[in-house]
Amino acid sequence: MKHKHPVRRDFDRGFFKRFYEDAAVISEDDVFKRACFVIAYLSHLQVPVHNVLDAGCGTGLWQRALGQIDTDIEYLGIDPSAYLCEEYGWFQSSVADFRSRKKFDLVVCQDVMQYMGAAEVEKSFAAIAAVCRGALYFDVPTSDDIDDRLLDMRRTDKSIHVRSAAWYRKRLAKDFDNAGGGVFVMKSANAVLLALERGR
What pTM, to 2 d.p., does this model score? Predict the structure, then answer.
């Protein structure tokens, strides 16, 4: 399961048909529930969300969920897949290489970094911090979840880098405070984050 070299994936029509259509590893309902939680939690933390960057947006599940929550939220989806960008109109870019003068209230990066080598992950976190002014919602399969059998690896792509949650938390801690629930708030944001709301 662990890979010394970068996991190379062709994010083409076949990949998304297999994991997002034929045997979907994540449903629209699941993403909608996550989006509702994140937007409500950030409102509680006094982090307003007017625009969202979906970094590695795939088929656009977050776009559809956010559209159901608040049609005024501005959305930008980026993805390295030429197929997806042609199919859905996303901006083609990897997370690591994305640059923007515009700052985003919320950056979403879900199920993306398991396909990256360590150096690219670090570069991606730096790129996200450079364009984020509010919070990051981050989710990735970890060795902790697999060991605890919280993830059904029979239904998902096995060609991934598997790292511990602590490995990711250590790198996120440079620019973000862990607010729990996959929400990481920029240290520079004016969030009201109480001691018991901080994840450890």
Answer: 0.85
